[in-house]
Amino acid sequence: MIKFLICALTVVSLVKGKATPEVQRVWKDSYFPTAEDIITRPSGRPFTISVEGNVGSGKSTFLNFFRGYPDISVYQEPVDYWTNFHGEDMLGLVYNDTKRWGLTFQSLVTLTMLETHVKDLRGRDGLPTPPVKIMERSMQSGRWCFVEQMTNVITNAEKYLLDEWYGVIRNTTDVDVDAIVYLRTDPQVIYERIYKRDRKEELKVPLSYFQDLHRLHENWLIYQNVTTYPMPKVIVIDANTDLSLLKLTYRQFAKDLYSAVPEILKTNDFFSFCTGKC
Ligand code: TTP
Asked: What pTM value is reported for the model?
């Protein structure tokens, strides 16, 4: 009898768990500025979100949920460009020999990120511009996570060179973001995902590398103790759970964000969904 009761309770709780998947409702309308704030922004930059998180945390998947919405431009990071830059696999080179290629690779990342940051500025070319832009990563994660990660491998002079480029760009160009979505993951979880996805350049990278990168993301986004530049709003999503559950959270996020765009800013045009360099 007792055995039967335990069994019945387990079945009920499993069914219950299935029936009420946990959707993390993370977007708040108050995150969106007023239409006037966007229209009068001197640089013409749209409301900009960067999606951050460790390697393999699911940033590209997150971006896919914004496909199909007008008035939002989406930029995936150009990994294919990095792995075939004028015939060279720069990502492979940096993992094989960070001391030799660290500066070169991070310069390439900075360059391609900068290109994305300055896309879709209002008032440029007289073309309609989206009120919202979402980009995978940013110059900021290049600087505060990946350059930091190389600190003991590249020379001080190389690090200062990257840092000074970063400072000059930040002080002369509007590469800010309004909000960061942080897909927070356990390094062990992403380590397994990376192994499964089989990107050849990453297969020999040890767990300790992803643990260090995790710590750097946490310092930057959770403890916020790495930079004196003002931090944007950080929206944290627990991205350890199964993708089938996360999809519900991401779908809800896209819906809520789109509804928060002030009507006056909407053009109903579809903008780039860029999956590489564009
Ligand atoms: P990620 O930017 O983390 O992209 P991803 O494809 O892992 O994203 P997700 O699975 O979450 O969709 O990194 C792509 C590769 O580029 C990864 O091997 C880390 C490397 N990289 C650097 O070495 N330096 C950098 O500054 C950046 C941004 C990436």
From this structure: 0.91
